[in-house]
């Protein structure tokens, strides 16, 4: 009796179609871009493959929060998983494991290809020597033919290993690009929180070993929610880009800027005094306060955009995370004192 396979196939197609519709609806409902990264993330959450992300989305929605592009990327990178001993989270830790596996595979294929090449060269040398023996002409000819066949297969294997090695190198380059993309804030082009924390750990060790100063600074855009509420998120995004560009002007080998999240930015000053770091930071604050922003969509004035900041000497605390908290507390104090100012943690 013939088995009717059309019904199972139709169920599979229906399930796939429903999942595709759910993914589309999710992206449209939350105003998310249709990008390969978003498709993978949302597919994982809705299909059940990424249960951690699914739980995070449900909790976010239940709490009345918006599933924004920034939040989705931050949760995907930092994830609900516990922090590893190196401070990496979620995707970051998986990237490290994949990089290690890829490096091992590339090394293996390279070694195999070189070993195959040496084996083939040895066989060729033996065939050449055997061909000069006249006493066993028939035997030598047979062995020579067999060995040459083996050489042909060896060379083919060598070519295949070369292809695998090239493919591994291509994959490694793509992984490096993906890693860089995972550490860049898509809106401002600045390093994101994950990248900054890696940078902080590296400079902390280097500055301590070299007996150099290390200053942290947090800054936050004053009344930024009002800008979004009155003028819309597009105008808010342009303000964020303008702040990022202004802060980036201060960067050099001893100064680094990153977007820490939302309207908050973080700076790291190395091997300069607290006074010099504060002056650089304050110059940016004053320059921005003098500008007047216009909503291009409506030609309505956005008005004055100001920053509040908090700074802390990293080596005045037991570890960099304590310094981050001190700088954040100083930022909060700057807000309480009326905004549009910078407070250094040691001053209060």
Automatic annotation (TrEMBL):
Its EC number is 2.7.7.65. The keyword Transmembrane does not apply. Keywords: Coiled coil. PROSITE patterns: GGDEF (PS50887). One of its GO terms (molecular function) is diguanylate cyclase activity. GO terms for cellular component: plasma membrane. GO terms for biological process: cell adhesion involved in single-species biofilm formation; negative regulation of bacterial-type flagellum-dependent cell motility. It is an enzyme of class 2 (transferase). CDD domains: GGDEF. NCBIfam families: GGDEF. This is diguanylate cyclase. It comes from Afipia carboxidovorans (strain ATCC 49405 / DSM 1227 / KCTC 32145 / OM5).
